[in-house]
Amino acid sequence: MRGRFVAFEGGEGCGKSTQARLLAERLGAVLTHEPGATELGRRVRTLVLGPAVGSATVDARAEALLMAADRAQHVAEVVRPALEKGLDVVTDRFSGSTLAYQGYGRGLPLDDLRWLTRWASGGLEPDAVVLIEVPVEVAMARARARPGEGPDRMEGEDREFHRRVESGYRSLAAADPGRWAVVDGAGDVDEVAARVAGALGL
User: pTM of this prediction?
Assistant: First the structure.
């Protein structure tokens, strides 16, 4: 029997990475992420998100294609083999990110991106998608307060870009309520985890 595939989505700093980890621990699932879960993906991540790469130097279509390459390798190397072994898989980002960021955020045609991500994943889609929502201002402040070398290229985009991404996520969730669960990301980690579990019927 194939394992269950759950994706976490949301803007920068919303807390989805923490919640993905907690759910994977609860389920005994394989925890993974995009971009960068494979060797090829790590190289793609550096190209697309590295702070040394100025946003003006990466064409929006090139960005979408690089993300698709990461997803193709991610599915082939990590996600599909685990699911076929009967293991549950929890991923921090999947196809929803392409539609939200490169579609709503960058303005690329959604139908083209849907085709691209289906092709890259071999038609694999999550069984459930958890969208963690927090206000853009809160999310951006969290993302920029993280320890490290400063915001990556996506985190460094302006507020209007992040508002478009946020609006895009809401549209995606509203269009597919049977698969998407919207969870309030406000409050402490345990409170949000309880909401995630309730949304997934756990």
Answer: 0.92
